[in-house]
Amino acid sequence: MKCRKKRIFAALLSGFLLLGCTGCGKTNSNITSIGDAVSILKRDPSLFDTYVSNTVIATGSNTVIPEAQSVTYRAWIPTEVSGELEYCFYFSNVVDSTWDDGSKAYAGMPGGAFTIESASVSDGGTEFEANLQPESTAAVTFSGKASKEVAPDEIFWSDPVTFDVPEGHYLLWEWTLTGTNIPAIAMSNLAYSYAEKGDGKGFLYAGDIPLPKLFGCKRDVKTRIVTLGDSLTQGCGTTEFESQFWAAKLLDQLGTEDYSLWNLGLGYSRGTDCALGGDWLDRAVAAADVVTIAYGINDIISGPYGGNGHASANEIEAAVRQITKPFQAYDIDTVLWNIPPFDLSAELEPIRTEYNSTAGEIASDCGAVLFDAAELLKDPADASKTVHGQHPDDTGCEILADHLTEVIRTNFSESEIDP
Q1: What is the pLDDT of residues 124-150, one digit of tens each?
Q2: CA-CA distance, 53 to 212, in Å (whole number)?
């Protein structure tokens, strides 16, 4: 059984919680009163309590496959823990976040109707091979069936399947799909992802690939970490296919004996996307004991989808406060990032500076610990400039992971967690 922390934020008042949980999909029956003044919400038991992430690779959706006709997709997924485990895969036919200007895909966009013709997991071996013919394979089924018709907006789990991924091997995910507007992720060369379209060309690289949103496995951990954010969280800018991004390094340092990590970072995403309160935020709340929240760059550069351009510091603050509400209400430990430098223009840099000037107060108000990413990644000669790249490179991510490890160990120690 996973441990559950019993610490309560004394500042949470009953009235605030009732307001703060609007749109959370919870009812008053889940409220437990503590004395006369303080209330917290209890999360309903769910499969997220049983199945935790088994990969640091981000697997949300920020784009769509416009059309697929019996296309087979393959992805070689590094696992957090190897060996024989019971897996269960989570899916939602909804786009999590906005891509570019939103003309192709936007946050909350329903996926189209599509068919899962078949799905399987295999031993992907130790070396990538696009046209691998796996020897060890297990079918993934849905309510006992090999295929499934998926409706727009549908959220569902696969059946459990027990499978052995040997030490140092990839888990090979494969499925064949037919349909339109299938939610997918722009993989940004963070995992090997390929598609075969039945045209005799074999498996060819696919930069955009549909995947389960959780590669869940049944194992006991003390703390489930969820990382919410944009491309800096997803891992863009690090060595391709090597899992050198900060979320992966964070888990390396904390260790998989006590921790799991679910990477919900998505390139191009805005805080205003997550603040909409769709499945992206809902599943983070359902699955987190500790959450990191890192938004702002795309809000500044692109602004909210459907808006008029760059978000103001006040708009970013409003989005962040909306995102943190359910985590505070459910007493989930929260690490809130300020906005690191991104070599912004003279027009946009003041927005970042203004937001960061109040980030500590925002974190305190939201029951979060502030993570000063801006200080760690700035050029000592000019705080508006980067020293490890706009998307932090391997070295920058090592620095972030070192400090985040200390933040988590210092603020959310096992002494605060009660079996």
Answers
A1: 999 999 998 898 999 999 999 999 999
A2: 11
**Considering its fold, how many domains does the chain have in total?**
2
In this structure, the dihedral spanned by the alpha carbons of residues 37, 320, 309 and 66, taken in order and rounded to 10 degrees, is -110
Buried b (16+ CB within 10 A) or exposed e, 117-144: ebbbbbbbbeeeeeebeeeeeeebbbee
The CATH number for 400's domain is 3.40.50.1110
Closest to 178 measured CA to CA, from 135, 255, 117: 117
**Where a domain ends, among 214, 237, 264?**
214
**Do 203 and 82 sit in the same domain of this protein?**
yes
- Between the alpha carbon of residue 68 and those of residues 91, 148, 178, 181, the distances in Å are 18, 15, 5, 9
**What's the rounded Cα separation, in Å, for the pair 185 and 266?**
8
The answer to whether residue 88 is domain-embedded is yes
Q: Note whether 303 and 351 are within 8 A (CB).
A: no
Q: Which domain holds residue 112?
A: 64-214
Query: pTM for this one?
Result: 0.91
